[in-house]
Amino acid sequence: MDAYLIPAVDGVGYGLLLFVVAAGLTLAFGVGDVLNLAHGTLFAFGAYAAAKVSDGTWLSLALAVLVGTAAAAAGGAVLSALLVPLAGRGHLAQALLTFGVALVVGDLLVGLFGPDELPVKVPALLDRPVDIAGHSYPGYRLAFIGVAALIAVVLYVVVARTRVGSLVRATVDDRDMVATLGVNPFMVRTGVLAAGGALAGLAGALGAPIIGPGPRTADLVLMLSLVVVVLGGLGSIGGAFVAAIAVGEIQTIGVTSEVTQDFAPFLLFGAMAVVLSARARGLLTSRRSAA
Amino acid sequence: MSILRRLTPLGFPALIVVLLPMAWVLDDYATKTLTSILVLGLLAASVALLTGVAGLPTLGQTAPYLVGAYTAATLVRHDVSIGVVQLLAAAAAGALFSLVTAPLVVYARGVVVLMITLALGELTMTVAGRWKSVTHGTDGLLAFAAPAPLPGLVTLDTDRATYLYVLTVVAVLVGVMLLVLRSPAGALLRAARDGEARMRASGHPVAGYLTVAYVAAGGLAGAAGSLLVTVERYVSPGAGGFDISALVLLAVVIGGATSLVGALLGAGLVVATRDWIASRDWFGGSMAGHAPLVLGGLFILCVYLLPRGLLGKRTAHE
Amino acid sequence: MQRRSLVSAALAAGLLFAAAGCADSDPKSTSGAAASTLKIGFLGSLTGTYQAVGTDLKSGFELYLATHDNKLGGHPIDLKIADEGDGAPTAVPAATKLIKDDKVVALTGIVGGGSVAAVAPLLAEAKIPLIGSNGRPELKDLSGVWTTSFMSTDTGQSIAQYIKDKVNGPVYAIGPDYQGGYDQVGGFTTEFLKLGGTLVNGKATFTPFPTTTNFLPFFSQIKASNAKAVYTFYAGKAAIDFVKQYAQSDAKDIPLYSAGFLTEGSVLQAQGDAAKNILNVCNYSPDLDNEENRKFVAAWKQKHPDATPTTYAMASYDAAAVLDRAIAAAGENPTPESINAAVGKLGQIPSPRGNWQFGPKTHSPIQKWYLRQVRNDGRALANVMVQDLATVGA
Questions:
Q1: Which residues of chain C neighbour A115 with C-beta distances below 8 Å?
Q2: Cβ contact (<8 Å) for C218 and A118?
Q3: How far apart are CA B244 and CA B43, in angstroms?
Q4: Residue C297 lies inside a defined structural domain of this protein
Q5: Across all residues in chain A, what is the average pLDDT?
Q6: Which fold has domain A2-283?
Q7: Cβ A14–C214 below 8 Å, yes or no?
Q8: Between chain B and chain C, how many beta carbons pairs sit less than 8 Å apart?
Q9: In total, how many domains does chain C have?
């Protein structure tokens, strides 16, 4: 059992990283009603910012996080503007547009930063193993778990306890009702895509030493976030949290045993497909149509 | 009514008539390229069938495509050398796969279908990579023996022969599909797409119709997989990767989701553009490998400028 | 709508001609007069996961051309470059274009074993020889296939005796789950077991490929298994992840031995101090003391002042050298067949790695392998030569 302590802890860390990213996607989909297939690209903004700006000092780390988050938030806002001409065209057109943007921007990132995975420098204090119950664990990851947990708590407080949060929850439950409150839908969508982007960028900048910037990063993060969002209930931040931790644990503990090693990838995508279709059958009778 | 609209009933036979003599007009390399375009075009037609006609936008037709391709490759490696047999087996495998996975897909609508089929596509690619005893994993299956289309005919040793075989298969399959869609079956499918609540209220088993369409599309994709093996003589999990799904979806978007012929044209345009960009020495060769940029740009342009693609028809969703 | 039908008609009309017009309109290569220009095809990963290796292969070949007046065997060379991408789906169409459209007389490069396997039948059909400089899978028909890199099993095999001598206890062997991984790690485990060594679990562990980016769970297992050393092979991003995580994991104090690719090229810079002291085996080291290497490194540094040459670049440089000698020996009008025959008759090839020659059974180098260690070499980290290991090849 002792050999599973580190993987379990690591799974929490990975899960928290996925949660912060997926929370952004959940916001976009649940509130903004947009399937943002460029979400992984926004994560990549944060990761590249960390690789290029962070040089081992705490100040540069803070700057990297700031730059990454701001760039991704701006990206989200731009996406919202790009979607304006598609008003009334339906979800498929919007999803396709974000997909095209993801392809283009992804290629530009590779053109700008090169085709290699970029290394990320972290402050020396964190760049060493720390002792957990007699085991060694990378210091940065432990610190990340702390910070990501804090972000998760803040998110919860904002969504559950503030006015903005209640608007968010209300929109997920009944979009049309909220529209009657006189809130400008374009501003809501822009705000949500920017906030979602900011979360992705933040996750990217902080999580770059764990999921680094490279040509495959955007696809990987998009795929995993989609799995988390779907398993978590397509609009529920709390659900996304539980799903993210579960996915994180599957990815870490799941690979250690030879028995489960083969099933881990199937587990994720299989669960996603099953949950989606089960909900789809239920969704047919509920007010909120996913189409 | 635009010129294209008027020509549409003639469109498909005309397309075949134009493509047929290409076997003698073009050189070996262009013939091989056109053959690959036709294979992808058949896959795109199956995507169009689901996305445009049935109303189920899909990123997962690469799944039955891979199933069909591996089936055909395995047959080739076991010395089954008749092309039509490989084709039928692959189509059956693809259809069976779709039959099994249909309950996951046909109850969802809109972008949710995109996500489910994406998951299915990824899952299938993962299985192809891990089931080493059957698929040789990520190293892929080499299937080098050229088939003879029918018992008694010569084997497809030249690029021209392969091209004609693929063209014939695509012409027959797409032609049959077009005829079926012109029949009451097609009308039922389009009605289910446009006015589902009304159909359901009239007692139509919408899920049943969609399942039939989904299985048919699976068969088409499986057949395309068999053609892939005939042309490339090799299959690996990468042949059904996300980038292929994206390419094919783009072809359908450009061609017009509701039109199978549009899907063929779209496939041609997309593949030709991608290969052409890659082969030109623009900017000192630096454009090579920037296919995603071009494809993404095409995607965006299409979504803005050609909402219904080249040949798509208006649907109730617009 | 007017605009729409105009746009549609224009696009549709141009379509088939665009497809047909894909054919390059290069003049056919003349293989008549002496010193005619010859077309050589280079296929390598210029995009995707293996871009770093593919670019190195390209640089190595181009360096040889640049330092030899752009001539091989006395003939000016028109190097046609195509992108292998991530594997067969991109490699096969690219190779087809080189063979049918550009009509090259020989093909070189190719990063992935899977790409070689898929392209080999095309080359055999067209009777074009392959002077491959990296990937090398199991092939049945070797008559037109030559590799200047190595057989994947050679790497591990050459260090097995050294590890058996130095390590007093079981070794944990780990690698990626695909043919390349099996060959690299398997080369070690087969020889090691033959020499009487013990492996943890009696066999190697293979991690899901290419999806594994987090090796910490495996490191916990390694620690728990009481292994006295670890032998591994990874390349590219996986190598970066492996090394960086190893240094901060439970396994950090267990000596790490590896195939040289774990710390070769750009991955070493990305790994930084985490890679220090890793003992690795490679068929080349930039600090080898011979005439050819001095010339090679000097020329390389002129072109690429910020980098040291890798074994990938060196193998591709040698591929050009092989073609240089073979074309010269193939007479006045070299054809693909005569070039292929000439390669088979080449003897010792002087090379930056030391002299080597093609093994008659494998068409792959019979060469010496070197033990290197990652150390500070001046201001930067480098793979520093420690000692010779075995000479392997057949």
A1: 47-48, 51-52
A2: no
A3: 10
A4: yes
A5: 84
A6: ABC transporter involved in vitamin B12 uptake, BtuC (1.10.3470)
A7: yes
A8: 136
A9: 2
Q: Give how far the C-alpha of residue B29 lies from the chain's centroid of Cα atoms, to the nearest Å.
A: 22
Question: Within a domain: residue C312?
Answer: yes
Instruction: Return the pLDDT at A176.
Output: 75
Residues C277 and C305 in one domain: no
Q: Where are the alpha helices (DSSP H) in chain B?
A: 3-19, 22-25, 28-48, 62-77, 83-105, 111-130, 132-135, 159-182, 184-194, 196-201, 206-232, 242-255, 260-279, 291-305
What is the C-alpha to C-alpha distance for residues B214 and C36, in angstroms, rounded to an integer? 58
Q: What is d(CA C170, CA C168) in angstroms, rounded to the nearest whole number?
A: 7
Residue that wins the pLDDT comparison between A266 and A230: A230
- What's the pLDDT tens digit per position in A204-232? 999 998 888 988 889 889 988 988 888 88
Q: Are C75 and C139 in the same domain?
A: yes
In the predicted model, what is the mean pLDDT of residues B293-308? 84
Q: What is the pTM of this model?
A: 0.82
Residues C322 and C312 in one domain: yes
pLDDT in tens, C56-105: 999 999 999 999 999 999 999 999 999 998 777 788 888 988 998 889 99
| Chain A, window 10-29: residues with a beta carbon less than 8 angstroms from a chain C beta carbon | 10, 14
Retrieve residue C125's tokens.
């059909």
Query: How far, in Å, CA of C118 to CA of C130, rounded?
Result: 13
* CA distances (Å), origin A245, targets A208, A242, A248, B218, C244: 18, 5, 5, 35, 24
Could you tell me which chain C residue has the CA closest to the CA of A128? Answer: C248
The shortest CB-CB distance from A104 to any of B116, B296, B304 is to: B296
Cβ–Cβ below 8 Å for C220 and A265: no
- Residue A269 forms contact with B (CB below 8 Å): yes
Rg (CA), chain A: 19
Residue C14: the pLDDT is 45
Q: Residue C96: which CATH number?
A: 3.40.50.2300
What are the residue ranges of helices labelled H in chain C? 2-20, 51-67, 88-96, 113-126, 152-166, 179-194, 216-224, 236-246, 266-271, 291-303, 311-329, 336-344
Please give the C-alpha separations between residue B145 and each of A181, B66, C93, in angstroms, as whole numbers: 68, 19, 18
| Smallest Cα distance from A160 to chain B, Å | 27
Q: What is the pLDDT of residues C330-358, one digit of tens each?
A: 988 899 999 999 999 999 999 999 999 99
- Check whether residue C220 and residue C351 sit in a common domain: no
Rounded to whole angstroms, the Cα distance separating C281 from C392 reads 12
Residue C335 lies in a domain: yes
Alpha-carbon distance values, B297 to A78, A80, A103, A104 (Å): 16, 18, 8, 6
One domain for residues C382 and C314: no
CA angle A193, A196, A199 (to 5 degrees): 150
Contact B173, B220 (CB under 8 A): yes
Of A94, A271, C328, A159, nearest to B104 by C-alpha is A271
Please check whether residue C20 lies inside any domain of the structure: no
> Is the CB of B306 less than 8 angstroms away from the CB of C8?
yes
C180 and C212 inside one domain = yes
**Is there a single domain that holds both residue C190 and residue C274?**
yes
Cβ neighbours of A53 (radius 10 Å): 19
Do C131 and C234 fall into the same domain?
Answer: no
B58, B107, B210: best mutation site toward chain A, by most A Cβ within 10 Å?
A: B107
- Residue C338 token pair: 């005569």
Q: Answer yes or no: do C117 and B285 touch at CB < 8 A.
A: no
Interface of A with C in 113-172 (CB under 8 A): 115-119, 127-129, 135-139
The secondary structure of A193-249 as a DSSP string is HHHHHHHHHHHHHHHTTTS--STTHHHHHHHHHHHHHHHHTSS-HHHHHHHHHHHHH
CB contact under 8 A, A119 and C248: no
State how far the Cα of B75 lies from the Cα of B73, in Å rounded to an integer.
5
Q: Does C203 touch chain A (CB under 8 A)?
A: no
- Enclosing domain of residue C358: 34-150+292-363
